[in-house]
User: Fold this.
Amino acid sequence: MKVLTKEQEEAHYKVTLKGGMKGLALGTAIGLTGLGLASRRYAIIRGLTLPMKSFLITSSSTFCAIVAADRASRSYEFESMPKNLYKDQASRDMAVARENDTTFDKFKQWGRDNRYPIVTASWIASMGVALQLVRNNPYLSKAQKLVQARVYAQGLTLAVLVVTALFEVGDANKGRGRWETVMVVDPNDPEHKHMIEKKIHHEMYPGEDLWKDMVEAEEQKIAARKQQEGAAAAAATKQAKN
Assistant:
């Protein structure tokens, strides 16, 4: 456990307070905007009492302030500990492999990494759009409008799921998943022109392969120590013969 100095505690407090104030301002703006838009559209919102409206706004601002302050605090803690800034070999290899990707390749990779949040967000967005499309239909009841909106939303979500499944099949056919074979610059090439294949491990969380780097570094130290001991023994033997 790291013990913070008084200066670090004060800096941490200032960063957390600043983040909380930003979140408070953002949450208040969101609350006021949302309440204003809802009041224009829904009579039940316009009929709320002033204390209830104040509660809705303060709930939004308080929530955003807490989240922003927590994120600022965690960010300071992360940056203040040097070990958190270390990237293991797998992370460095992946970063090098992604440097040569085109914008379209980066977009596809972003889609692969966020495929499931995209499915969820598309369903929510499609429900909202579908409700707007059917809400003005005078021949449908509220229940029928909801069912119709769900049908539209499920159709779009199904299409997104099909695309996601194609990504999954493509990754399986190309051997992607926990491991991926990419082309990287040969570290032994002084001109950095020769490309070689390298198998990169996709970490489930940052630093998963950190222990491998530690083991490799320790093995290198042991090998170097043995080499020095062997050289010293050979020199001593040669000197004894002379």
Notes: DSSP finds eight helices and two strands in the chain.
